Amino acid sequence: MSARDDIAAHFTSGALADELLDAYREEVLETAAHWLEAVGEMTAPYLIRTCDGPRRGEKATAAAATATPTPFLEDARLRTLHDAMRTQPGQWRTSHARRALRDAGFKGLGRNTASQFLRALVEKGLATAHGPEDGRFYTLSTTGKDGRA
């Protein structure tokens, strides 16, 4: 049984249920269209994935309830690199960053570009640089630029 059928079962008139559900659907779609226009098509899937909470009947895990929210990153490559660092914690060197971005489908990334993305994460307080310039590696920060965990 679909959600629409489940809702319609609570009405004595199927036509009234359909009319109300169609009106609600139009309202939701109009709101979503305005929202998509405001954030942009490239950003919307990331925000939806980030903001999407547990569904009705699901419980959030204890860790999820206290977890630091994923920061908003405008650049898709920077966001992809940050996500990769979160899913594979440890020491990240320029070669690791290049490989992660290449595996995600980004083309034409040299060492300098990968290094710039790692430095950008440091500037945003999302990563920490370690070691001398010729042997530098990066790790995910445990605190943000504002000092919050």
Brief summary:
The chain has 149 residues and is mainly alpha-helical. The protein has seven helices and two strands, in the order αααααααββ.
Describe this structure in words.
- With 149 residues, this protein is mainly α.
- It has two domains: 3-39; 66-140, Winged helix-like DNA-binding domain superfamily/Winged helix DNA-binding domain (Arc Repressor Mutant, subunit A, Orthogonal Bundle).
- The chain has helices at residues 3-8, 14-39, 44-51, 62-66, 76-87, 94-103, 111-123; strands spanning 127-130, 137-140.
- A two-stranded antiparallel ribbon has the order 1-2.
- Helix 5 crosses helix 7 and helix 6 crosses helix 7.
- The radius of gyration is 22 Å and the shape is elongated.
- It starts with a helix and ends in a 9-residue tail after the last strand.
CATH architecture of the largest domain: Orthogonal Bundle
List low-pLDDT spans: 49-56, 62-67
Provide the β-strand percentage band: 5-15%
Number of DSSP helical runs: 7
Q: What would you report as the Rg, rounded to the nearest angstrom? A: 22 Å
CATH class of the largest domain: Mainly Alpha
List the helices and strands and how they pair.
Blueprint: H1 3-8, H2 14-39, H3 44-51, H4 62-66, H5 76-87, H6 94-103, H7 111-123, E1 127-130, E2 137-140
Antiparallel strand pairs: 1-2
Question: What labels describe this entry?
Answer:
2 domains; Arc Repressor Mutant, subunit A; mainly alpha; 149 residues; two-stranded antiparallel ribbon
